[in-house]
Amino acid sequence: MNLLSSASIFSFFTLISRILGYLRDILIAFFLGTSVFADAFFVAFRLPNTFRRLFAEGTFNAAFIPSYTKERLTSDRAGKMFADDVLRLVTISLLFLVLLVEIFTPIVIFLIAPGFFQDSIKYDLVIELARITFPFLLFVSVSSLFSGVLNSHNKFAAAAAAPIILNVVLIVILLASYFFNTNFVKNLSYGVTGAGILQMLFLMYFAKKFYKPSFEFKTKVNKKVKFFIRKLIPSIFSSGVTQINILVGTIIASFQAGAVSYLYYADRVYQINLAIAGIAVSIVSLPALSRAIKKKNKKNIFQIQNKSIELTFLLSIPASIGLIIASEEIVSSLFGYGSFSEEDVKLTSKALLYFGYGVPAFALVKVLGNLFFARDDTKTPLKISLLIVVLNILISVFFFNKIGFIIIPIATTTSSWIGTIIYFFILYEKKFLNIERELFKNLAKIFLCSFLMSILLIYGIGFFSDELMYSNTFKFLYLLFIVTFVAIIYLISCNLLGLLKFKNYKTI
Question: What is the DSSP string of 279-301?
Answer without folding.
Answer: IHHHHHHHHHHHHHHHTT-HHHH
